[in-house]
Amino acid sequence: MAGLRIEGLRKGFGPVEILKGIDLDIRDGEFVCFLGPSGCGKSTLLRCIAGLETLSDGEIRLGERDITDAPSAKRDIAMVFQNYALYPHMTVAKNMSFGLSLNGMKRPEIEARVQEAAEILRIGELLHRKPKQLSGGQRQRVAIGRAIVRKPKLFLLDEPLSNLDAALRVTMRAELNALHDRLGVTMIYVTHDQVEAMTLADRVVVLDKGRVSQFGPPLELFHRPANLFVAGFIGTPKMNLLPGRVTGATGETVSVTVGPLAMDVSLAAAARVAVGETVTVGVRPDRLRLARGGAGLPARITLVERLGTEAHVHLVLEDGAALTAITEGAAPFMARQDVTVGADPADVHLFDASGAALPRRLDSATETLLAQGSRGFAEPRQQEEHA
Q: What region holds the ABC transporter domain (predicted)?
């Protein structure tokens, strides 16, 4: 196994620069997701790591080895693509063993590796079938098995579940988590689906326009987004963002107003904003409070999506700004109803005029959860191996 270090990585195509100075240190045994919208550079970054693209600048190290200019076949990396890319005329066993045969590995070792991978992925009964006889989920397992038999130091997965239906994606997410726990190898997973990133990764790299916007554990990104881009991208439905103005700033307390609504927000560090400055106020949908009258922002409900255990309530403020609130499924709200909207100051995120987050003060339970999540799996696994 080996960690991955990327320093000053740049990649351009002609005059267009796609990756604009990427620095990452991925620990040995971590499961890391590259997350971002289309065009942010996540697949290009993965291809650079795999050796499928030539860098414009920078360095990539796998363990202690500099692989910046190494050919793809010599990097000790296995890649699983969105397209299964299985040979239709070969059996499952042949598909999994073909690369090993080309490398001159002896037949007994090849057979042992194929059997081991088949047991891990529970596809032993499929080894004599051909791809056309398999379901989408089975084909994806074969593609992953083809990577496992190589026993690489690094797995690269480029949106491997995007061709599967919703139910199968949930199942495969759980299987990928179990596979990572069992193999203990470093994995990098590219996705635009934040649910996949939040449920699979030890840490997530959020990319925006070719730059790393934030790199950290999933819950850190959710509870302490570094900037407006991450705040708006992480979370479904996305965070509600409204313009506010600072009316007071003393020590670690900032007083802000949003329309007629005023609140005092406690920070985790001294405030770096001044009275009169414009800030952006963010509140997660599940933290908005709706009431029929009273203090708050006047709003009208435009749509209620009832999902059973919860409901998504879509609202519009008097100035035309749109908000979304999450309530209990039986919440008695209806479309075209007038309500007031508020929030507990402890649930408010603040962002300065540049879009950078002001450090939030969290409750002790959330702080403990974040501290536990930041450890990842590498340390516990090593402890188990040496126990």
A: 4-234
